[in-house]
Specification:
Elements lengths: L2 H10 L5 H4 L7 E7 H5 L11 E6 L3 H6 L7 E3 L4 E5 H9 L3 H4 L9 E4 L1 H8 L8 H21 L6 H22 L8 E7 L7 E7 L6 H18 L11 H24 L10 H8 L5 H21 L8 H19 L2
Parallel strand pairs: 2-4
Antiparallel strand pairs: 1-2, 1-5, 3-4, 6-7
Helix pairs in contact: 8-9, 8-11, 9-10, 11-12, 11-13
Length: 341
């Protein structure tokens, strides 16, 4: 199914009427585009790769003036469509949520609706980007990795490698901690693996901690989050036989894609949703060309690249809230002005 066929289906098929029949959507939609495999360039065919529609809608003048703005998306599960209200999308974009960031980096021909307000968001995506990308993309990829490992339930998966993956996940969390807890020096936490005396362990993670006059509640929060990572990995032996191979390969594809895309954003400050350069690689992964051992080797390689980009990014610590607020004022003022004419 090509892009013109998809567009015709969205605008002329009654299953998408919810977009036009809902008064809070319809003319308020400022951006409507593709999500999922069609957006990434990894779709197989119309039967296997469903159409995912993603969009952004303005808040109504009443919502703006009463400060009672909708804070959850409009969802239509039969068509796998999600339309985010502007008030919600701003928060998600500023948190570098991969599912919404990618809406502003699609190919030009993948936009079915792109009004001036949608263009403003797309053209100013850099004001939303910050080092939060490290946690969001790194966190999502870690989640995919855990799901993949859990589904495979690889009893033969080397304990030493599992420990290394756990440590990489915790190291990413340390970057996230800087934005959520009282700041500390990078050298305050030294994570490494070493030989273990525990039964069933060849190696395990050790940590050297140097903190002075540090809030106990913050320290407790950080250790709890790190403990959660270890607990999740310890569930790997709980077999999940419901996952078929196609699903596992799809998980693998998204794991690699998230690491590549996240590293690229950190390095270039740009968002490219359609993965032109890696399309063949991602499709080969999805089609089962590589063994899971090879995929895990790729994960190690792309995690190193992601970590290098994380340590050398020029993105600011936080989004540019002054410019974001100016952007929202500009957009919302136009909504109010139109309602008064």
């Amino acid at each position: 199914m090509n892009i013109n066929q998809i567009k015709d289906k969205i605008f002329n098929n009654e299953e998408y009427n919810f977009l036009w029949d809902n008064d809070k959507l319809n003319n308020n939609i400022i951006l409507l585009t593709l999500g999922g495999s069609h957006a990434y360039g990894t779709s197989l065919n119309s039967k296997i790769s469903d159409i995912d529609v993603r969009g952004i809608a303005l808040n109504t003048s009443k919502e703006i003036l009463t400060m009672n703005c909708r804070d959850k998306p409009y969802e239509d599960k039969p068509t796998d469509s999600v339309i985010y209200p502007l008030s919600q999308i701003v928060i998600l974009l500023s948190n570098a949520n991969p599912n919404v960031i990618e809406m502003l980096g699609c190919e030009d021909e993948h936009y079915f609706i792109l009004k001036d307000e949608g263009k403003l968001l797309r053209n100013n995506i850099e004001v939303f980007l910050s080092k939060r990308v490290i946690q969001s993309f790194g966190g999502y990829s870690t989640s995919q990795l855990r799901r993949l490992q859990n589904a495979l339930a690889r009893d033969s998966y080397p304990q030493v490698e599992k420990e290394q993956h756990m440590m990489n996940s915790i190291k990413r969390q340390l970057i996230h901690f800087q934005n959520h807890y009282t700041k500390f020096e990078k050298s305050s936490f030294n994570l490494y693996t070493d030989k273990s005396n525990k039964e069933g362990f060849e190696e395990e993670i050790f940590v050297d901690v140097t903190l002075n006059h540090y809030p106990l509640r913050d320290f407790n929060g950080m250790t709890s989050e790190m403990t959660n990572v270890i607990r999740d990995y310890n569930k790997l032996n709980n077999r999940n036989k419901k996952k078929d191979n196609a699903s596992l390969l799809k998980h693998s594809l998204h794991l690699i894609r998230l690491l590549i895309m996240g590293a690229e954003i950190l390095k270039t400050k740009k968002v490219n949703t359609y993965r032109k350069n890696e399309r063949d690689l991602l499709l080969d992964i999805r089609n089962g060309k590589y063994s899971y051992d090879q995929i895990f080797m790729m994960v190690d390689e792309y995690e190193q690249k992601f970590d290098y980009a994380s340590n050398n990014t020029e993105l600011p610590d936080l989004p540019d809230w002054d410019k974001i607020n100016e952007l929202m004022i500009d957009i919302n003022k136009k909504v109010i002005e139109r309602s008064n004419t």
